[in-house]
Amino acid sequence: MPAKTPMYLKTPTDRRGRKLRLRDVLSGDMISPPLGDVRHSAHSSDRPPHGGAEALTHRAVSGCGVQCHRCTNFNFVFLQICVRCARSDRGGERRTRGGPEEDQRRTRGGPEEDQRRTRGGPEEDRRRREAKMKLNIDGLLVYFPYDYIYPEQYSYMLELKRTLDAKGHGVLEMPSGTGKTISLLSLIVAYQRAFPLEVTKLIYCSRTVPEIEKVVEELRKLMEFYSKQTGETNNFLALALSSRKNLCIHPEVSALRFGKEVDNKCHSLTASYIRAQRHNNPNQATCRFYEEFDAVGRQVPLLAGVYNLDDLKEHGRRKGHCPYYTARYAILHANIVVYSYHYLLDPKIADLVSKELAKKSVVVFDEAHNIDNVCIDSMSVNITRRTLDRCQTNVDTLHSTIQNIKDTDAARLTEEYRRMVEGLKEANVARETDVYMSNPVLPDEILKEAVPGSIRTAEHFVCFLRRFTEYLKSRLRLQHVVQESAPQFLKDIFDKVCIDRKPLRFCAERLQSLLRTLEISDIADFSAVTLISNFATLVSTYSQGFTIIIEPFEDRTPTIANPVLHFSCMDPSIAIKPVFQRFQSVIITSGTLSPLDIYPRILDFRPVTMASFTMTLARTCLCPLIVGRGNDQVALSSKFETREDIAVIRNYGNLLLEMSAIVPDGIVAFFTSYIYMENIVASWYEQTILENIQRNKLIFIETQDAAETSLALEKFQEACENGRGAILLSVARGKVSEGIDFVHHFGRAVIMFGVPYVYTQSRILKARLEYLRDHFQIRENDFLTFDAMRHAAQCVGRAIRGKTDYGLMVFADKRYARADKRGKLPRWIQEHISDGSLNLTVDESVQLAKHFLRQMAQPFRQTGEGGEALQTGEGGEGGEALQTGEGGEGGEALQTGERGVRPFRQVRGERGVRPFRQVRGERGETGPSDR
């Protein structure tokens, strides 16, 4: 069950349910405590006779750690003192009811008043600013390196601790921009320090390199705070791990453009047989950084500290060690490892990198809303006719190489045959640099078996590969679509070419052994035969959860014959199941996981906690609008039947045109697919809508080319910075929708044109929907809607990246007004959708947007309504903050910044006033709420 929100995190109300401010509480107004949080029974004799502030003082808040700094009682606390002490304090009345004169005295009281406010002069003021927070989370002391904590962060850490206590798995949804990363790190690091034998390692998985870097920087800040507070030197080792492309410091290798080229070149310099050749041939090129690491680096491990990718590269240059292999070696004894999903979910990589990690580890999958697709992609294989042609060339090359070795070094092949008889485990004892890709699926008991006789010798194995390749070529000559299961495929191949299941199962490992025996340095040249071998192993290992679809045409080019064989994984739990079984706790978290219950079903695990947290806001800084009609009352939709409708396209253009005239700075628009975007933009051009839009803002378009998209993003941000304003036209499920944050003025409005359903005529999708229905009882429409709404939420969520941010979320499709669609949006978006924002016309949405933007432009004083939600530290942009006293071990208390409230200021842009951006105060910083 979800934890009750502690009393001090709930806003007190009067008898009519209205929120009360501090002055109301101190004046004795009657308070209705939130339901379900009364600690006394209705018939308790010691319950106070009234429901006012005195009643609250009798309720101890269990587990919250909030104490009055004067009487040390656990009472309802404002400004570090409880209500009872505040009333007895003569200054308390003056602080809350002083009127204009008292307000003026507080802000302009001269040096004496200024010194009284700082309570001890500059030294005390400095000490108080340096003191961050120490929290009591259900009995666990947690260090939090910020001046305040949001209510949802506290609740999030509480649920996270319960998950770790239960040694189980959890699914936690928390809005973007509310400090999810630092909450995770603070709680788990505190747990590691308190229970070092229970949790030995944190494995933090993120999607992209920039996100990995952000996590490491938050971790660095946390460790520095620990050192300041405890006075102890940091004994934790935390590091990031990425590919060779991001870590290599070899001048020649790092200059290569693509990751596969870097991997291949690195292998050609570091393989054990390449290094052995150097003894006979001094001119043989090797990597001096790996040589130094191999000689010295293993004996001198990384010192305790926090290392991002640049730190590892700098360490490598200073010591002369290879940063990539230094990190690979260090993760075995590191306390915290931050790397990509694929190091755990892709079996071909996980078996190399993560095989030795301890069971008592906590695994966190951050931004995990798309984790099921990552699992499926890691286990799927696509084979085209071109792949088979390259494989045929690889097989011929292997055959000629074997013939050459038989003439020059036959003993090498004889030794390999002996190892094959003893089993694959013995045959595959190789140096770390020799293994290019691991076989994902064979368990240890199979690896100990002897290799089947039909593929033991190198020549027999090459003949086996040639036969298998010819069979696949014959299957691709079909002129009609074929769909079959793995057992049906195995039966057909046995009937036609007499290939049994067992040699197919050993195919991937046998190929790796042969490549090492032949001392092949350019492994990338043999990627085609490696792919075919992996397919052979997968199809012979799994009898369920996969399907084989052979299509004579690709979906993109239905008129051009280009046959393709899809070996598609239907069950994402196959890839992630070893992770759940192997590690103590796995946390799946993101800002868009709703509905939560579908992830445990499709990933086949039982979580001990599932919770969704909302975003507490001092002001309503997000405005979702559902536009269902044009001004001519034509229904707006991206359904297939209306995609060519000129009226719908025109109304979509008018919506973007009207929004471009009123929204400052940046607008991001998302379409359901690249083809749909191209058709609409072409139609807008013919109707001169684009020309009218460009009078307001510049237009940039995301393409499928990564370099073009990066350039468009750069120019988009430049146009927003100089005041011209810009619109970025993007695609749901594209690069922009997943990995780019449009902070503050870069994304003042996000428009989602249509519902981003996946292409429903795909045979692979149909097969997956059938599998989900048969095995997990998930109906087709439920999954399609869930998938579309999580991507729509991910797109519109680009607009809000923190509590000091604000933006419009425009859903331009009538279907969003349906309850079944809205119900699958995250809770923090749903609660801001009112009946008045459903099924709007374009004009109505523009009027609501104007009203919202006008509200956001007003100077904002965070006292009064809900000020506990938007918190900044002392000297920042002001307002109330959830903050502890100086260095205390307690929890949060509502506290006003020492330097008072500072309203948002306006700045003038090149094209007039832009009243929406924040600027740094004299002593303040931009709000850390974007963490």
From TrEMBL:
Cofactor requirement: [4Fe-4S] cluster
EC number: 5.6.2.3
PROSITE patterns: DEAH_ATP_HELICASE (PS00690), HELICASE_ATP_BIND_2 (PS51193)
Location of this chain's protein in the cell: Nucleus
Bias kind Gly residues: ranges: 873-891
Pfam families: DEAD_2 (PF06733), HBB (PF06777), Helicase_C_2 (PF13307)
Alphabetical list of InterPro entries matching this protein: ATP-dep_Helicase_C (IPR006555), DinG/Rad3-like (IPR045028), DNA/RNA_helicase_DEAH_CS (IPR002464), HBB (IPR010643), Helic_SF1/SF2_ATP-bd_DinG/Rad3 (IPR014013), Helicase-like_DEXD_c2 (IPR006554), P-loop_NTPase (IPR027417), RAD3-like_helicase_DEAD (IPR010614)
Domain Helicase ATP-binding: 139-417
Known catalytic reactions: ATP + H2O = ADP + phosphate + H(+)
Region (Disordered) residue spans: 28-54, 89-129, 862-931
Family the UniProt entry places it in: Belongs to the helicase family. RAD3/XPD subfamily.
NCBIfam families xrefs: rad3 (TIGR00604)
Protein name stated in the entry: General transcription and DNA repair factor IIH helicase subunit XPD
Originating species: Knipowitschia caucasica (Caucasian dwarf goby)
Higher taxonomy: Eukaryota, Metazoa, Chordata, Craniata, Vertebrata
